[in-house]
Amino acid sequence: MKKISEIDPLAKQRVTPSPSQRQKLLENRLQQEKEQGYQQLVELCLLGEYDAANQLAKNNPNWGYKIVAGEVIEKLGNEV
User: Fold this and answer.
1) DSSP codes, 5-56
2) Which residues pair with 69 in a beta bridge?
3) pLDDT tens-place string over residues 12-52
4) What's the CA gap between 11 and 69, in Å, rounded?
5) Whole-angstrom Cα distance, residue 50 to residue 77?
6) In sequence order, what are the beta bridge partners of 66?
């Protein structure tokens, strides 16, 4: 982090990403969230916290996972 004295208020600001760059950044962020969610679900299942894992999966449907018999399973496209 820069000190305030090092910041030039008249300097060119950072560039606004194009729509395609924004889309790519969004996709990367969502994929990273999905992978982190998977790790959290796996850890809960390994600890025997199946109810907590199931609740977490239900609270985050965008991750696309469900808990079946204590295992993390990826949902099919048409599953809710």
Assistant:
1) GG--TTSPPPPPPPHHHHHHHHHHHHHHHHHHHHHHHHHHHHTT-HHHHHHH
2) none
3) 777 788 999 999 999 999 999 999 999 999 999 999 999 99
4) 58
5) 23
6) 73
Position 58, amino acid:
K
Pairwise CA distance, residues 80 & 35, whole Å: 19
Nearest CA to 34 among 58, 53, 61, 52?
61
Contacts of 60 (CB under 8 A, 6+ apart): 37
- Is the distance from CB of 73 to CB of 67 less than 8 angstroms? yes
Report how far residue 57's alpha carbon sits from residue 33's, in angstroms, rounded to the nearest whole number.
Answer: 13
73 Cβ contact list (under 8 Å, min separation 6): 65, 66, 67
Contact of 65 with 72, CB cutoff 8 Å: yes
Strand 71-74 to 65-68 pairing = antiparallel
